[in-house]
Design goal:
The protein is built from one helix and three strands, in the order E-E-E-H. The protein has 82 residues and is α+β, with helices and mostly antiparallel strands.
Length: 82
């Protein structure tokens, strides 16, 4: 039986112009690529393989509630040593 899962994926552009992506619901599931499109393909395949491995090992695939919006922001903090 084929199941369909939905995952939030975060993308970040690296200083060299490439991209990296990760799925917060799947720890250590990451991918990179030279373009956003290539990175999307890579993370999709990484997620598929991650989920297959979990199923093969009898683990449940973790997912947050579908359809909730994702908010990505940047914060700045100042840290000084005591």
């Amino acid at each position: 039986m084929k199941e369909t899962y939905h995952f939030k994926v975060l993308f970040e552009q690296c200083p060299d112009g490439s991209f990296k992506a990760w799925a917060p619901d799947l720890p250590a599931c990451k991918a990179s690529g030279g373009s956003i499109s290539q990175t999307r393909d890579h993370i999709q395949e990484a997620i598929r393989c991650y989920c297959l491995t979990m199923l093969e090992n009898g683990a449940a695939i973790p997912q947050g509630p579908p359809g909730l919006p994702a908010i990505v922001d940047e914060v700045q903090v100042s840290v000084s040593a005591a």
